[in-house]
Every structure is written in C-alpha cells, then in structure tokens.
Amino acid sequence: DTAVSQTPKYLVTQMGNDKSIKCEQNLGHDTMYWYKQDSKKFLKIMFSYNNKELIINETVPNRFSPKSPDKAHLNLHINSLELGDSAVYFCASSPPNGIYGYTFGSGTRLTVV
Amino acid sequence: QKEVEQNSGPLSVPEGAIASLNCTYSDQGSQSFFWYRQYSGKSPELIMFIYSNGDKEDGRFTAQLNKASQYVSLLIRDSQPSDSATYLCAVSGAGSYQLTFGKGTKLSVIP
Q1: Looking at the DSSP assignment, which residues form a beta bridge with residue A21?
Q2: CA-CA distance, A91 to A9, in Å (whole number)?
Q3: CB spacing of A41 vs B42 below 8 angstroms
Q4: Phi-psi region of A3 (alpha: psi -120 to 50; beta: other; left: phi over 0)
Q5: Which residues of chain A have pLDDT under 70?
Q6: Which residue of A has its CA nearest to B105?
Q7: What pLDDT, on a 0 to 100 scale, did the predictor assign at position B29?
Q8: Which residues of A touch B51 (CB under 8 A)?
Q9: Testing the interface with B: which of A97, A106, A109 to mutate, by most B Cβ within 10 A?
C-alpha cells in the first residue's frame, strides 16, 4: 500500500494549458505539502495544509492553486502553464509539527513545451 | 530568510570508506534536523533525524549536531556503491511545520 501517492507520474503539456496534480496519503497525517524541485535538484516549499487549512503559502504565482477536500488529499491546479513551470512536483505529508520529518510521494515530472 | 547550506559535491569515496556530509544552517532557532537520501529520478527518503546536540547512530549512519556552531553532519561508515545518491539536509524551526532543504550533496561510492 503506497503511503503517499501522486498522479500522474509524468505530465507533458503545452504552454497556456491548465493541469492538475492529485495527491493522497493513507498515513493518517494531519499536514500535507507541495514542494517544487527544479533542474538543480533544489526542493522548495510551495504550500502546506494542516487538516484542510492552508498554513503556508510561499511566494508562488497565483496561477498555482492548491485544494484540500479532506486531510488525506491535497491537489494542485496550475493555470496558464509556462515553460518555467517545468519541474518535479512532490507531495509530502507529516504528523503534527513535522517533528518526525515528511513522507514524500513519488513525484510528478511536469514538462511544459 | 532561513538558509541551509551544503557542499554540492560530487563527493567521491572508495567502497568501504567513511563518507562525511556536512550542512550549516542560518536560523539559530532551528530545532529539528533531518537527512534525506534521494536516488536519481526518485523521491527523497528520510534516513536520519536528530534534535539534540551530539551524535545519533543508526546502523552505518551517524548524525552529528552542534547547535552552537549551527552545524549538522552525516557520516556513512563502510560506504557501499548503493549509497551513491544525493543527500539532502533539512531543518525546521520551533513549532514550525516547514522544512527548509539544502541543495544537496551528491555522493559517489567507487567500487
């Protein structure tokens, strides 16, 4: 049973399109995150939700909109995709306060052409 | 702004040697420290966490923390080719959910 699952694993799309990435965790964690990993492998936080409530919203374009229908799911919708959005997007989850670290999903490699 | 610094490497060590990976952080209030391993094309995997000054050992891995120097390290004893990966240092502050990651150190273990 996959603890944190993301779909799709790969996403190739044209500039200007809108796309969504879905994430689900079955660990019972309260907190979920979206991270972006660029071509230089730098992991940067985008958003964090605690029990469906947005708690971290880093400086990302407002074309990116997270949604958490319940504490086990966190989706990421991206409007008007740009070439610079190409990256690997990781979903992660953690117990309260993240004191035991995160469990990451397998990632979604987004390529905008 | 909180920063976590790592030498990007690559760090090459022969099989069986000790690999030493280092990390410094800027936020004096940081409380929790993590080491993740990331194989190429895979997601980060937690291998160690440490909260208190000193050493913490888990099998071939030892994490070392010195809060006064704002320094955390990871030692890998008896390095194996399967240890070849990028190692990410991550830090969180008091009561914070957010992990700030370093850019990672690429380790190559040469057979």
Answers
A1: A76
A2: 12
A3: no
A4: alpha
A5: 1, 97-98
A6: A41
A7: 87
A8: 99
A9: A97
